[in-house]
Amino acid sequence: MTAFALGPKARTAGYRLCGFDAVGSTNSEALTAATGGDAGGIWFAALQQTAGRGRRGRQWSTPHGNLAATLLIIPDADPAAAATLGFVAGVSLNRALGQLLPATDIRIGIDGADGIGHSQGARIALKWPNDVLADGAKLAGILLEAQKLDDGRHAIAIGFGVNAVAAPDGLPYPATSLTELGVARSAQQIFESLSDCWVDVFGLWADGHGIAAVLDYWRQAAAGIGAPVSVNQNGQIVRGIFETIDDAGRLIVRADNDARIAITAGDVHFGATASARS
Hints:
Low-confidence stretches: 106-120, 272-278
Organism: Devosia algicola
GO molecular function, one term: biotin--[biotin carboxyl-carrier protein] ligase activity
Strand content: 25-35%
Largest sheet: 7 strands, mixed
CATH topology of the largest domain: BirA Bifunctional Protein, domain 2
Keywords: ATP-binding, Biotin, Ligase, Nucleotide-binding
EC number: 6.3.4.15
Domain BPL/LPL catalytic: 16-206
Shape: globular
């Protein structure tokens, strides 16, 4: 039994749900539904993915008991505005985790730079463009995929992967889980909270008209603002200080010569690890 359930706000807003114990990919399920004529507003949630994927076609495995969830929507917004839904997703997931984790398990400060150990609580933060970190280790990821429909609109599959019980093995970067953080929360609990938080933040987004407010919330929860950063753009490394996220959602790096470089995509590393990992 998967026993997934929508939160009360999500039910009231008319969202639907399809739950699985295991599935190939919740994003694939969503995009297949879109091709079949689904009007959107439906969640696909699973305790395990056997063919999940991350950014740039990377594999994203989901050990059983973790959360894999995808929301299919067909927004009334142009593609450029729809691309900012990743920030809606990040803020929604950050809020959901904040509701589920005791306050003593969350601490504030630039990721990896405040000098407080795990005994003081984990630092939960958003990493540009689409990860959630706990003390610099990946706790969750978000993947957006778009599909053009016959009527010219775009269906958007917004995928969430949360390490509830275990982090995948063999990753090229640190990863953690809620269990490793000493927090016992099931995938079903995370999903129910996420589905409600999505309603609030998506309403704020307002078909792209409210993206400025969403980005403000994203910055407040961001990892690494004001700290050294390096960005790998297909082998080209950009280094400097992570200054902010601009109004289009681009990462702004201030280089040593004070030039401000706008980054639209790339793999980001912070602080002392920036040089070593890039």
